[in-house]
Amino acid sequence: MRALLFSTDVPPVLLAPMAGITDLVFRRICRSFGADGAVSEMVSAKALCFGDKKSRRLCEIDDSERPTGIQLFGHEPQTLAQAARIVCAFSPDWIDINMGCPVHKVVSSGDGSALMRDPKLIFRIVQAVTREVDLPVTVKLRAGIGGVENAVECAQAAQEGGAAAVAVHGRMREQFYAPSADWGVIARVKRAIDISVFANGDIDSPSAALEALAQTGADGLMVGRAALGNPFLFEQIKAALLGMPEVPPPSPHRRLEVARRHIHELVQLKGEHIGMLEARGHMGWYFKGMRGAASLREKCNKLTTIQELDTLIDEAISMQKG
């Protein structure tokens, strides 16, 4: 079993994988603000095995963002093992297997959270992947599925299969992202296994990060939706973990300039058409809580060029001064 290692003096804080969000650009930005690592968007193991070019592009890693894991999803042990071998060409620092996605389309295909219905299958998948690659293999879980909390049993199966770590989102599959995460289930997983455990769910402030570690005894944290439009959260959490003075929230001007950098890099990577379509969602998150946010979001949904984006950001900066 290869260990999952981070060069930190405190529990590592990672950017959690989010479909359509944690691309190379966003991972790199979060890393620059203190994230200790990140996991890619989920990549279809079957599509990789069929040579899908779009899936391969999702696996691209830049050295400036490391350490980075590539997350695979699927339900067939040998297909996942073959896909893991394929992604080794992109030199990830570890391989993660998605067993927590709650989306109906994914679950109905037997992937994501659906795997938690069968801990024996979890064991076979992890065993197949760990035997195929010489990299740490991790697993992303939820509290359970179908009203049955079985994260402990699933985590134990992952450990027996050779996983180096598990991340547990403290909600059942049916709960999606509400109500509040149950960190108690993460604590139960931590007590039941010997490998590293990462706490995920509602890690949305420095105080929440400290409380999650205290309640769960986890070895690290994963920050997901709270980082949308707010990569600054990582530097705030890291300061709290290190016992340093509180890092204040960024000024609107700083937030918007980081947003500008984010979208410019996005367009550079993906081209203006795709980049600007994706920019609409990201800018909506960056505008959250700002003066005139509603009207800014409305204008944002009509963006088609990088010049229009720059004009809108300049307008937003001026509005914050009024």
Could you explain the architecture of this structure?
This protein has 322 residues and is α/β, with parallel strands linked by helices. Helix 9 links the parallel strand 8 (196-200) and strand 9. Helix 7 runs parallel beside helix 8 and helix 11 packs antiparallel against helix 14 (306-321). The mean pLDDT is 96. The protein contains 14 helices and 9 strands. The chain folds into 2 domains: 13-241, TIM Barrel (Alpha-Beta Barrel); 252-321, Orthogonal Bundle (Non-ribosomal Peptide Synthetase Peptidyl Carrier Protein, Chain A). Helices cover 46% and strands 16% of the residues. An 8-stranded parallel barrel has the order 1-2-3-4-5-7-8-9, surrounded by 7 helices.
Summarize the structure.
With 322 residues, the chain is α/β, with parallel strands linked by helices. The protein has helices at 24-32, 45-49, 53-57, 77-87, 104-107, 119-132, 151-161, 183-192, 206-216, 233-241, 252-270, 272-286, 293-300, 306-321; strands at residues 13-15, 37-44, 68-73, 94-99, 137-145, 148-149, 165-172, 196-200, 220-223.
What is the element layout, followed by pairings?
Elements: E1 13-15, H1 24-32, E2 37-44, H2 45-49, H3 53-57, E3 68-73, H4 77-87, E4 94-99, H5 104-107, H6 119-132, E5 137-145, E6 148-149, H7 151-161, E7 165-172, H8 183-192, E8 196-200, H9 206-216, E9 220-223, H10 233-241, H11 252-270, H12 272-286, H13 293-300, H14 306-321
Parallel strand pairs: 1-2, 1-9, 2-3, 3-4, 4-5, 5-7, 7-8, 8-9
Antiparallel strand pairs: 5-6
Helix pairs in contact: 4-6, 6-7, 7-8, 9-10, 11-12, 11-14, 12-13
